[in-house]
Structure prediction request, 398 residues.
Amino acid sequence: MSFHVLIAGGGIGGLCLAQGLRRAGISCAVYEAAPGLVRAGYRLHMNAAGGNALRQCLPENLFELYMQTSRKNPRREQLTIVDHHGTELGARPHIGPPNDPVRPHTAVNRRTLRQIMCQGLDDVLHFGHTVAGYRLTADGVRLELADGTYADGDVLVAADGIHSVIRAGLLPEVEVVDTGMRGMYSLAPVDDELLARIPETLLDGFVLANGPDGTMLSFGLFDPRRPIDEAVAELAPGAAIDPVRPYMMVNSGAGLPDAELFSSTPQRLHELMRDGVRDWAPGIRALIDRVDPASIFPNSIRHLRPAEPWEPSRVTLIGDAIHAMPPTFGAGANSALRDAGALATQLAAAAGGKDLLTAIGDYETGMRAEIFPILRASADPRAFDHDFVPEDVPVANR
Ligand SMILES: Cc1cc2nc3c(=O)[nH]c(=O)nc-3n(C[C@H](O)[C@H](O)[C@H](O)COP(=O)(O)OP(=O)(O)OC[C@H]3O[C@@H](n4cnc5c(N)ncnc54)[C@H](O)[C@@H]3O)c2cc1C
Prediction:
Protein backbone atom coordinates (compact mmCIF):
# COMPACT_ATOMS: atom_id res chain seq x y z
CA MET A 1 0.00 0.00 0.00
CA SER A 2 1.39 3.45 -0.80
CA PHE A 3 0.34 6.51 1.17
CA HIS A 4 1.30 10.08 1.97
CA VAL A 5 2.01 11.33 5.50
CA LEU A 6 1.46 14.98 6.46
CA ILE A 7 3.64 16.16 9.36
CA ALA A 8 2.65 19.31 11.26
CA GLY A 9 5.83 20.81 12.77
CA GLY A 10 9.48 20.46 11.80
CA GLY A 11 11.06 20.35 15.27
CA ILE A 12 12.99 17.46 16.80
CA GLY A 13 10.27 14.84 16.32
CA GLY A 14 8.89 15.98 12.95
CA LEU A 15 12.30 16.03 11.26
CA CYS A 16 13.27 12.63 12.63
CA LEU A 17 9.97 11.16 11.47
CA ALA A 18 10.49 12.59 7.97
CA GLN A 19 13.94 10.95 7.87
CA GLY A 20 12.52 7.64 9.10
CA LEU A 21 9.70 7.66 6.53
CA ARG A 22 12.08 8.55 3.76
CA ARG A 23 14.32 5.64 4.78
CA ALA A 24 11.26 3.36 4.69
CA GLY A 25 10.30 4.66 1.23
CA ILE A 26 7.10 6.40 2.46
CA SER A 27 6.08 9.75 0.98
CA CYS A 28 5.73 12.67 3.43
CA ALA A 29 5.66 16.46 3.70
CA VAL A 30 6.56 18.62 6.72
CA TYR A 31 4.79 21.95 7.39
CA GLU A 32 6.78 24.15 9.79
CA ALA A 33 5.60 27.60 10.92
CA ALA A 34 9.07 29.10 11.42
CA PRO A 35 10.81 30.55 8.37
CA GLY A 36 13.84 28.33 8.99
CA LEU A 37 15.81 26.83 11.89
CA VAL A 38 15.33 29.60 14.41
CA ARG A 39 16.87 29.56 17.90
CA ALA A 40 15.04 27.02 20.04
CA GLY A 41 17.49 26.23 22.84
CA TYR A 42 21.07 25.08 23.08
CA ARG A 43 22.21 21.75 24.41
CA LEU A 44 20.14 18.58 24.55
CA HIS A 45 21.04 15.70 26.83
CA MET A 46 20.75 12.51 24.79
CA ASN A 47 19.94 9.02 25.96
CA ALA A 48 19.71 5.68 24.17
CA ALA A 49 15.96 6.06 23.50
CA GLY A 50 16.64 9.10 21.31
CA GLY A 51 19.97 7.80 20.02
CA ASN A 52 18.53 4.46 18.91
CA ALA A 53 15.74 6.27 17.03
CA LEU A 54 18.34 8.38 15.23
CA ARG A 55 20.24 5.21 14.32
CA GLN A 56 17.02 3.77 12.87
CA CYS A 57 15.85 6.88 10.98
CA LEU A 58 18.98 8.61 9.68
CA PRO A 59 21.12 7.45 6.78
CA GLU A 60 24.37 5.92 8.12
CA ASN A 61 26.59 8.92 7.34
CA LEU A 62 24.23 11.34 9.14
CA PHE A 63 23.97 9.07 12.18
CA GLU A 64 27.77 8.94 12.33
CA LEU A 65 27.82 12.75 12.02
CA TYR A 66 25.43 12.98 14.98
CA MET A 67 27.74 10.66 16.99
CA GLN A 68 30.91 12.54 16.10
CA THR A 69 29.36 15.95 16.79
CA SER A 70 27.97 14.79 20.16
CA ARG A 71 29.60 15.81 23.41
CA LYS A 72 32.78 13.98 24.39
CA ASN A 73 32.19 11.34 27.07
CA PRO A 74 31.78 13.38 30.25
CA ARG A 75 33.76 12.78 33.43
CA ARG A 76 30.74 10.88 34.80
CA GLU A 77 27.55 10.30 32.75
CA GLN A 78 25.02 11.06 35.51
CA LEU A 79 23.03 13.87 37.05
CA THR A 80 25.14 15.38 39.82
CA ILE A 81 23.70 17.72 42.44
CA VAL A 82 26.13 20.19 43.99
CA ASP A 83 26.12 23.15 46.35
CA HIS A 84 27.33 26.66 45.52
CA HIS A 85 30.96 25.60 46.06
CA GLY A 86 30.53 22.79 43.54
CA THR A 87 30.71 20.19 46.34
CA GLU A 88 28.73 17.08 45.48
CA LEU A 89 25.52 16.60 47.47
CA GLY A 90 24.21 13.58 45.58
CA ALA A 91 23.97 11.92 42.18
CA ARG A 92 21.36 10.11 40.13
CA PRO A 93 21.68 7.85 37.08
CA HIS A 94 20.14 9.12 33.85
CA ILE A 95 16.95 7.49 32.68
CA GLY A 96 16.67 5.62 29.40
CA PRO A 97 17.58 2.21 27.97
CA PRO A 98 21.15 0.89 28.48
CA ASN A 99 23.70 3.26 26.94
CA ASP A 100 26.82 2.16 25.04
CA PRO A 101 29.75 2.12 27.51
CA VAL A 102 32.37 3.06 24.89
CA ARG A 103 30.67 5.68 22.75
CA PRO A 104 27.51 6.55 24.68
CA HIS A 105 24.81 8.99 23.64
CA THR A 106 25.83 12.10 25.59
CA ALA A 107 24.53 15.48 24.47
CA VAL A 108 24.16 17.45 21.27
CA ASN A 109 23.90 21.04 20.20
CA ARG A 110 20.19 21.29 19.35
CA ARG A 111 20.68 23.36 16.19
CA THR A 112 23.35 20.97 14.92
CA LEU A 113 21.04 18.00 15.42
CA ARG A 114 18.24 19.80 13.58
CA GLN A 115 20.61 20.77 10.76
CA ILE A 116 21.74 17.16 10.48
CA MET A 117 18.12 15.97 10.37
CA CYS A 118 17.27 18.50 7.61
CA GLN A 119 19.82 16.96 5.22
CA GLY A 120 18.26 15.42 2.15
CA LEU A 121 14.76 16.69 2.98
CA ASP A 122 14.70 19.85 0.79
CA ASP A 123 11.85 18.51 -1.31
CA VAL A 124 9.58 17.67 1.67
CA LEU A 125 10.33 20.51 4.12
CA HIS A 126 7.99 23.50 3.88
CA PHE A 127 9.20 26.28 6.19
CA GLY A 128 6.98 29.32 6.79
CA HIS A 129 3.79 27.23 6.62
CA THR A 130 1.63 27.61 9.74
CA VAL A 131 -0.83 24.83 10.38
CA ALA A 132 -4.31 26.03 11.39
CA GLY A 133 -6.25 22.75 11.75
CA TYR A 134 -7.41 19.64 9.93
CA ARG A 135 -10.48 17.73 8.90
CA LEU A 136 -11.06 14.10 8.08
CA THR A 137 -12.22 13.47 4.50
CA ALA A 138 -13.91 10.44 2.96
CA ASP A 139 -10.63 8.65 2.33
CA GLY A 140 -7.96 10.63 4.12
CA VAL A 141 -7.20 13.82 5.99
CA ARG A 142 -6.88 17.46 4.95
CA LEU A 143 -4.33 19.71 6.66
CA GLU A 144 -5.47 23.31 6.71
CA LEU A 145 -2.86 26.06 6.61
CA ALA A 146 -3.17 29.55 8.05
CA ASP A 147 -2.82 31.15 4.59
CA GLY A 148 -6.03 29.45 3.47
CA THR A 149 -4.34 26.71 1.43
CA TYR A 150 -4.41 23.02 2.34
CA ALA A 151 -2.66 19.71 1.76
CA ASP A 152 -4.27 16.29 1.46
CA GLY A 153 -2.79 13.05 2.74
CA ASP A 154 -3.59 9.64 4.21
CA VAL A 155 -2.18 10.20 7.70
CA LEU A 156 -1.60 13.39 9.69
CA VAL A 157 1.02 13.50 12.46
CA ALA A 158 0.92 16.28 15.05
CA ALA A 159 4.57 17.15 15.73
CA ASP A 160 3.74 20.77 16.47
CA GLY A 161 4.86 20.97 20.08
CA ILE A 162 3.18 21.70 23.40
CA HIS A 163 0.61 24.15 21.98
CA SER A 164 -0.32 21.78 19.13
CA VAL A 165 -3.31 22.99 17.10
CA ILE A 166 -3.81 19.44 15.86
CA ARG A 167 -4.11 18.11 19.45
CA ALA A 168 -6.55 20.93 20.22
CA GLY A 169 -8.82 19.40 17.57
CA LEU A 170 -8.20 15.72 18.37
CA LEU A 171 -7.92 15.72 22.18
CA PRO A 172 -9.26 19.10 23.31
CA GLU A 173 -9.50 17.90 26.93
CA VAL A 174 -5.71 17.66 27.37
CA GLU A 175 -4.61 20.38 29.71
CA VAL A 176 -1.41 22.48 29.53
CA VAL A 177 -0.07 22.91 33.09
CA ASP A 178 2.03 25.93 33.98
CA THR A 179 4.39 24.89 36.80
CA GLY A 180 5.03 28.56 37.63
CA MET A 181 8.77 27.84 37.32
CA ARG A 182 10.68 30.30 35.19
CA GLY A 183 14.23 30.08 33.98
CA MET A 184 16.88 31.97 32.08
CA TYR A 185 18.53 29.86 29.45
CA SER A 186 22.03 30.85 28.30
CA LEU A 187 25.44 29.72 27.20
CA ALA A 188 29.00 30.66 28.12
CA PRO A 189 31.82 29.99 25.65
CA VAL A 190 34.52 27.95 27.41
CA ASP A 191 38.21 27.35 26.89
CA ASP A 192 40.81 25.22 28.71
CA GLU A 193 41.73 28.06 31.03
CA LEU A 194 38.12 28.57 32.20
CA LEU A 195 37.43 24.83 32.42
CA ALA A 196 40.47 24.44 34.68
CA ARG A 197 39.03 27.04 37.06
CA ILE A 198 35.54 25.63 37.56
CA PRO A 199 34.81 22.80 40.05
CA GLU A 200 35.28 19.49 38.24
CA THR A 201 31.83 18.29 39.34
CA LEU A 202 30.44 20.76 36.77
CA LEU A 203 31.97 18.58 34.03
CA ASP A 204 29.64 15.64 34.80
CA GLY A 205 26.80 14.68 32.43
CA PHE A 206 24.33 17.21 33.81
CA VAL A 207 24.62 19.26 36.98
CA LEU A 208 22.08 20.91 39.28
CA ALA A 209 23.46 23.45 41.75
CA ASN A 210 21.59 24.69 44.80
CA GLY A 211 22.63 28.02 46.28
CA PRO A 212 22.31 29.11 49.92
CA ASP A 213 19.31 31.41 49.31
CA GLY A 214 17.33 28.98 47.16
CA THR A 215 19.01 30.02 43.88
CA MET A 216 19.11 27.06 41.53
CA LEU A 217 21.34 26.76 38.46
CA SER A 218 21.98 23.92 36.07
CA PHE A 219 25.00 23.28 33.89
CA GLY A 220 25.72 21.11 30.89
CA LEU A 221 28.99 21.20 28.96
CA PHE A 222 28.99 20.87 25.18
CA ASP A 223 32.41 20.03 23.72
CA PRO A 224 32.02 17.97 20.55
CA ARG A 225 33.97 14.74 20.03
CA ARG A 226 35.34 16.18 16.81
CA PRO A 227 35.30 19.77 15.45
CA ILE A 228 31.95 20.04 13.68
CA ASP A 229 33.29 21.48 10.40
CA GLU A 230 35.86 18.67 10.19
CA ALA A 231 33.22 15.97 10.77
CA VAL A 232 30.87 17.58 8.20
CA ALA A 233 33.64 17.82 5.60
CA GLU A 234 34.26 14.07 5.88
CA LEU A 235 30.76 12.69 6.44
CA ALA A 236 28.40 15.12 4.66
CA PRO A 237 30.52 17.36 2.44
CA GLY A 238 28.75 20.59 1.50
CA ALA A 239 26.00 20.19 4.12
CA ALA A 240 24.80 23.47 5.65
CA ILE A 241 25.80 22.75 9.25
CA ASP A 242 27.32 25.54 11.34
CA PRO A 243 30.53 25.09 13.31
CA VAL A 244 30.01 25.33 17.09
CA ARG A 245 32.65 26.24 19.66
CA PRO A 246 32.62 24.47 23.06
CA TYR A 247 30.27 26.08 25.57
CA MET A 248 28.67 25.53 28.93
CA MET A 249 24.89 25.73 28.88
CA VAL A 250 23.75 27.55 32.00
CA ASN A 251 20.13 27.66 33.13
CA SER A 252 19.24 29.86 36.04
CA GLY A 253 16.03 29.99 38.01
CA ALA A 254 14.34 33.38 37.74
CA GLY A 255 12.42 34.95 40.60
CA LEU A 256 10.92 37.89 38.70
CA PRO A 257 7.26 38.52 37.86
CA ASP A 258 6.56 37.44 34.27
CA ALA A 259 5.92 40.97 32.99
CA GLU A 260 9.40 42.01 34.14
CA LEU A 261 11.19 38.78 33.20
CA PHE A 262 9.92 38.67 29.64
CA SER A 263 10.53 42.38 28.98
CA SER A 264 14.00 42.68 30.54
CA THR A 265 17.01 43.30 28.34
CA PRO A 266 19.59 40.49 28.07
CA GLN A 267 22.05 42.76 29.92
CA ARG A 268 19.61 43.08 32.85
CA LEU A 269 19.07 39.29 32.90
CA HIS A 270 22.84 38.80 32.91
CA GLU A 271 23.13 41.18 35.89
CA LEU A 272 20.50 39.11 37.71
CA MET A 273 22.42 35.90 36.99
CA ARG A 274 25.63 37.47 38.32
CA ASP A 275 23.87 38.80 41.45
CA GLY A 276 22.48 35.32 42.09
CA VAL A 277 25.98 33.79 42.35
CA ARG A 278 27.67 36.56 44.39
CA ASP A 279 28.54 34.11 47.19
CA TRP A 280 29.36 31.12 44.97
CA ALA A 281 32.75 29.53 44.16
CA PRO A 282 35.06 31.91 42.23
CA GLY A 283 35.19 29.46 39.27
CA ILE A 284 31.40 29.43 38.99
CA ARG A 285 31.32 33.24 39.19
CA ALA A 286 33.92 33.40 36.41
CA LEU A 287 31.72 31.10 34.32
CA ILE A 288 28.62 33.25 34.85
CA ASP A 289 30.64 36.36 33.97
CA ARG A 290 31.48 34.65 30.69
CA VAL A 291 27.79 34.06 29.77
CA ASP A 292 27.06 35.70 26.43
CA PRO A 293 24.24 38.20 27.17
CA ALA A 294 22.91 37.79 23.61
CA SER A 295 22.34 34.10 24.34
CA ILE A 296 20.08 34.65 27.38
CA PHE A 297 16.40 34.06 26.97
CA PRO A 298 13.71 33.54 29.61
CA ASN A 299 11.48 30.48 29.46
CA SER A 300 8.45 29.04 31.29
CA ILE A 301 8.28 25.42 32.41
CA ARG A 302 4.98 23.92 31.23
CA HIS A 303 3.82 20.37 30.65
CA LEU A 304 0.79 18.37 29.56
CA ARG A 305 -1.33 16.07 31.67
CA PRO A 306 -1.30 12.51 30.27
CA ALA A 307 -4.40 11.92 28.13
CA GLU A 308 -6.79 9.03 28.73
CA PRO A 309 -6.51 6.40 25.94
CA TRP A 310 -8.31 7.43 22.73
CA GLU A 311 -9.52 5.62 19.60
CA PRO A 312 -6.88 5.48 16.85
CA SER A 313 -7.62 7.43 13.68
CA ARG A 314 -5.70 8.79 10.69
CA VAL A 315 -4.51 11.61 12.95
CA THR A 316 -1.83 10.80 15.50
CA LEU A 317 0.66 12.66 17.67
CA ILE A 318 4.35 12.55 18.59
CA GLY A 319 6.62 14.38 21.02
CA ASP A 320 5.62 17.48 22.95
CA ALA A 321 2.29 17.59 21.10
CA ILE A 322 1.15 14.68 23.30
CA HIS A 323 3.56 14.47 26.23
CA ALA A 324 5.38 17.79 26.75
CA MET A 325 7.21 17.40 30.04
CA PRO A 326 9.39 19.54 32.32
CA PRO A 327 13.09 19.15 31.44
CA THR A 328 13.93 17.55 34.82
CA PHE A 329 14.99 14.19 33.33
CA GLY A 330 16.26 15.55 29.98
CA ALA A 331 13.80 13.25 28.26
CA GLY A 332 11.45 15.42 26.13
CA ALA A 333 13.46 15.46 22.91
CA ASN A 334 14.57 11.86 23.43
CA SER A 335 10.92 10.86 23.75
CA ALA A 336 10.00 12.81 20.60
CA LEU A 337 12.76 10.97 18.69
CA ARG A 338 11.67 7.64 20.16
CA ASP A 339 8.09 8.32 19.00
CA ALA A 340 9.32 9.21 15.50
CA GLY A 341 11.19 5.90 15.25
CA ALA A 342 8.29 3.86 16.64
CA LEU A 343 5.73 5.53 14.36
CA ALA A 344 7.99 5.12 11.30
CA THR A 345 8.20 1.39 12.12
CA GLN A 346 4.41 1.06 12.36
CA LEU A 347 3.77 3.08 9.19
CA ALA A 348 6.31 0.90 7.35
CA ALA A 349 4.36 -2.14 8.58
CA ALA A 350 1.17 -0.54 7.23
CA ALA A 351 2.88 0.09 3.89
CA GLY A 352 3.72 -3.62 3.96
CA GLY A 353 0.08 -4.63 4.44
CA LYS A 354 -0.78 -4.19 8.16
CA ASP A 355 -4.11 -2.48 8.71
CA LEU A 356 -3.36 1.27 8.97
CA LEU A 357 -5.52 2.03 12.03
CA THR A 358 -4.16 -1.06 13.83
CA ALA A 359 -0.63 0.16 13.10
CA ILE A 360 -1.40 3.66 14.41
CA GLY A 361 -3.19 2.19 17.45
CA ASP A 362 -0.19 -0.06 18.22
CA TYR A 363 2.11 2.96 18.04
CA GLU A 364 -0.18 4.95 20.39
CA THR A 365 -0.52 2.11 22.92
CA GLY A 366 3.28 1.67 23.05
CA MET A 367 3.86 5.41 23.35
CA ARG A 368 1.41 5.79 26.26
CA ALA A 369 2.96 2.80 28.07
CA GLU A 370 6.55 3.94 27.61
CA ILE A 371 6.41 7.73 27.76
CA PHE A 372 3.52 8.67 30.07
CA PRO A 373 5.44 7.28 33.12
CA ILE A 374 8.37 9.55 32.15
CA LEU A 375 5.99 12.51 31.83
CA ARG A 376 4.56 11.77 35.30
CA ALA A 377 8.05 11.38 36.81
CA SER A 378 9.32 14.59 35.16
CA ALA A 379 6.38 16.55 36.57
CA ASP A 380 6.73 15.02 40.06
CA PRO A 381 7.88 17.62 42.64
CA ARG A 382 10.53 15.08 43.78
CA ALA A 383 12.14 15.18 40.31
CA PHE A 384 14.85 17.54 41.62
CA ASP A 385 15.88 15.12 44.41
CA HIS A 386 19.00 13.03 43.80
CA ASP A 387 17.40 9.93 45.34
CA PHE A 388 14.19 10.06 43.27
CA VAL A 389 14.49 7.23 40.75
CA PRO A 390 11.02 6.40 39.43
CA GLU A 391 10.21 2.69 39.47
CA ASP A 392 8.31 2.47 36.18
CA VAL A 393 10.99 4.22 34.09
CA PRO A 394 14.13 2.45 32.78
CA VAL A 395 17.43 3.69 34.18
CA ALA A 396 20.43 3.71 31.83
CA ASN A 397 23.46 3.07 34.03
CA ARG A 398 22.29 1.77 37.39
C1 LIG B 1 14.96 24.50 28.85
C2 LIG B 1 14.71 23.18 28.17
C3 LIG B 1 15.71 22.22 28.16
C4 LIG B 1 15.48 20.97 27.59
N1 LIG B 1 16.45 20.04 27.60
C5 LIG B 1 16.23 18.81 27.08
C6 LIG B 1 17.24 17.80 27.08
O1 LIG B 1 18.36 18.03 27.55
N2 LIG B 1 16.95 16.58 26.55
C7 LIG B 1 15.71 16.30 26.05
O2 LIG B 1 15.48 15.16 25.61
N3 LIG B 1 14.74 17.24 26.00
C8 LIG B 1 14.96 18.48 26.50
N4 LIG B 1 13.99 19.44 26.45
C9 LIG B 1 12.69 19.11 25.83
C10 LIG B 1 12.73 19.24 24.32
O3 LIG B 1 13.16 20.51 23.94
C11 LIG B 1 11.35 18.96 23.72
O4 LIG B 1 10.75 17.89 24.37
C12 LIG B 1 11.49 18.64 22.22
O5 LIG B 1 11.95 19.76 21.51
C13 LIG B 1 10.16 18.14 21.67
O6 LIG B 1 10.26 17.94 20.28
P1 LIG B 1 8.98 18.12 19.36
O7 LIG B 1 9.41 17.86 17.98
O8 LIG B 1 7.85 17.37 19.93
O9 LIG B 1 8.60 19.64 19.55
P2 LIG B 1 9.45 20.91 19.12
O10 LIG B 1 10.88 20.60 19.04
O11 LIG B 1 8.98 22.00 20.04
O12 LIG B 1 8.96 21.19 17.65
C14 LIG B 1 7.68 21.63 17.35
C15 LIG B 1 7.75 22.38 16.05
O13 LIG B 1 6.43 22.68 15.61
C16 LIG B 1 6.40 23.98 15.10
N5 LIG B 1 5.03 24.47 15.18
C17 LIG B 1 4.33 24.81 16.30
N6 LIG B 1 3.09 25.20 15.97
C18 LIG B 1 3.00 25.09 14.62
C19 LIG B 1 1.95 25.34 13.69
N7 LIG B 1 0.75 25.79 14.06
N8 LIG B 1 2.21 25.11 12.38
C20 LIG B 1 3.42 24.64 11.96
N9 LIG B 1 4.44 24.41 12.80
C21 LIG B 1 4.23 24.62 14.12
C22 LIG B 1 7.38 24.75 15.95
O14 LIG B 1 7.85 25.92 15.31
C23 LIG B 1 8.48 23.72 16.17
O15 LIG B 1 9.49 23.78 15.17
C24 LIG B 1 14.21 20.69 27.01
C25 LIG B 1 13.22 21.68 26.99
C26 LIG B 1 13.46 22.91 27.58
C27 LIG B 1 12.38 23.95 27.57
Summary: The pocket of flavin-adenine dinucleotide is lined by residues 8-14, 31-34, 41, 44-45, 130-131, 159-161, 165, 185, 299, 319-321, 327, 330-334, 336 (CB under 6 Å).
